[in-house]
Design a protein that fits this description.
Number of helices: 5
Strand content: 15-25%
Oligomer: single chain
Structural class: alpha/beta
Helix content: 25-40%
Distance between the termini: 22 Å
Shape: globular
Number of strands: 8
């Protein structure tokens, strides 16, 4: 779990909420098995799809699917000097995801599939940072190889990213 506070879904106050999000997921655990820093096996995407298919048999009627944020803006990718390529890759992914959701909705009209456009939200924050009281696109802390946190700023609430990959808590609580 990557957050310095409650994530948005925990703020909804739903008591029987199941969060199927996984960090560090690979395409298929039969090819490559990934583990967390705590040595917990992470479900691969293929295994997650199987879980989701089985979940629909349990009368689940609502799915909220989040698209890919602007990968080219992550602190971890800035030094790669591949902004155009990463942006194109992200936009293609999000377009394919949107088309797949439309197909799912057509095939399963009794189930609601909703896409949350986090890409556009983060792009808006990047363009209008002062509106959101964000004045830095870099990370406000680093984690060393021995999992020690090194704080880089005394004002982390003005940062978009807490580390090279995760959004800072203030950004996860923006009203959309």
């Amino acid at each position: 779990r990557f957050s310095n506070g409650k994530i948005w879904i925990e703020k909804l106050g739903i008591s029987k909420l199941i969060n199927y999000a996984y960090e560090s997921a690979t395409t298929d655990n039969n090819l490559i098995t990934d583990v967390t820093a705590f040595q917990l096996i992470v479900s691969g995407i293929r295994q997650q799809i199987t879980t989701y298919k089985n979940t629909t048999d349990l009368s689940v009627k609502y799915f909220l699917i989040v698209n890919q944020p602007p990968f080219q803006a992550y602190p971890s990718t800035l030094s790669l000097n591949m902004n155009d390529y990463l942006n194109k890759l992200t936009l293609e992914h999000n377009n394919n995801l949107s088309n797949s959701i439309q197909t799912l909705q057509s095939n399963y009209s009794n189930i609601s599939f909703k896409l949350f456009d986090v890409y556009s939200l983060i792009e808006n924050i990047l363009i209008n940072g002062s509106t959101y009281k964000i004045n830095s696109r870099t990370n406000c802390w680093n984690t060393s190889s021995n999992n020690t946190v090194v704080q880089l700023s005394l004002t982390p609430d003005t940062y978009l990213y807490i580390d090279e990959y995760q959004f800072y808590y203030a950004c996860t609580s923006i009203d959309c």
